[in-house]
Amino acid sequence: MNLENAKVQMRKGILEYCILQIISRGEIYASEILDELIEARIMVVEGTLYPLLTRLKNAELLDYKWVESNSGPPRKYYVLTDKGNEFLLGLHETWIDLSDSVKTIISRKK
Asked: In terms of CB atoms within 10 Å, which end of the chain has fewer, N or C?
């Protein structure tokens, strides 16, 4: 078993939750999402982010609007829909439960 593969799979498993959490703070441009994920060491590349954003949009969890840019073409800013906020709440509750469960297992002594 490859440790690096296991780490990547763990990060991928929470990527959707992290992206929705970032977008929940307000309108945000895709490169800002990418920067925050990289800063948090959730390794992701544009080739992963954009298809995921499209999938979340198609699931009606987020929407976007085009905003003119002073330094180039218009930018697509993402926001959560009401359905997206509800979905995120469910993911958050699951994350808290899962995190607590893992902490319980890790903290047990022999």
From this structure: C
> What is the H or E stretch that residue 65 is in?
strand 62-69
Joined together, the tokens standing for residue 28 give 């945000």
CATH number at 3-107: 1.10.10.10
Question: In which band, very low, low, confident or very high, does the pLDDT at 8 lie, cut at 50, 70 and 90?
Answer: confident
> pLDDT tens digits, residue range 9-43?
887 789 999 999 999 999 999 999 999 999 998 87
Rounded Cα gap, residues 36 and 13, in angstroms: 17
Q: How far is CA 52 from CA 1, 17, 48, 109, in A?
A: 27, 11, 6, 40
Q: What is the pTM of this model?
A: 0.86
